[in-house]
Structure formats: structure tokens, C-alpha cells
Amino acid sequence: MIAELIRSCCGLELLAVKYKGKNVSIENLHQGFTHIFESTFESTEGVAEYVAHPAHVEYANLFLANLEKVLVIDYKPTTVRV
Amino acid sequence: MIAELIRSCCGLELLAVKYKGKNVSIENLHQGFTHIFESTFESTEGVAEYVAHPAHVEYANLFLANLEKVLVIDYKPTTVRV
Lengths: 82, 82
What we know:
The structure is a homodimer. By secondary structure, chain A is of the alpha+beta class.
């Protein structure tokens, strides 16, 4: 079910997801999280539009209902090292 | 103390941290996490070298001791959308 939802997520052109992947960390600090989705937006307004978009809301409700836990973090990246 | 540790982290040339930032998500799904560090490596071997490096171990021990909680996830990014 999760695998299917992940596939359907990435078929939705609206969604801004740029990269996805499964956790492979050797540090054992992943706290049970297994999948990662990374998106990039031009602005915080862009994030807000995305979050509020009906297609996102519909997908998020379905996706979240099938997840054991979820963590969402947004940040404005400060470049430390290129 | 955390702010100081974050500054010192980014002064360490060894560290592979590329971007840093504070959580600004409006979704309230950040589970109390406040800061993000993002690094990119050429290979999983590169991650393992970094994790095992004495300077990383020393810094990580100091840093982790001052954090309420931490989450580390590594993933090989599959491009979903460019």
C-alpha cells in the first residue's frame, strides 16, 4: 500500500517532489523513518500554495492515513559549503 | 549553546554539511525538530568515511549530548522531477 501510494505520489505532476529515496543510514538514528521526499520551492509563498492546493490536500489525507508516522520540515537553506 | 555548536559545526572544514536552516514549516508536522543540516556525498562509502572520521565522532558526541532529540536519514536520491 505504501509503495503504491509512493508511486502515485510521484505520478502527480502537481506535486513538487524532486527527489525520493529509502533510508540507508548506518548511524541508527533514523527513529524508524523509512522514506524521504525532498522538494524545492522558489519561495515560502510557493510552499504555502502547494500545501493548500486541493490536489495536495486530497493526496496528503490519503497518504497520511496510511503512514505510521510523518515528519515535515521546511527550511530556507543557508549555504555552508558548496 | 546550540547556536554556538551549530556555528562551530560549520567552521569545521572536514564536515560535509552543505546547507543548514531552521524549520519554518506551516504544516505543524515537524515533531519538535528545529534545525536541519543537509549534506551530499559522492558515494555511500563517502558517508561511512565521514561518519567514522575522528573529527566527526568528536563533534557528534559533543553535539548529540546537547540535543533534545536527533534524526539522521541518508538516502540515495532518485530524481522524481527536475
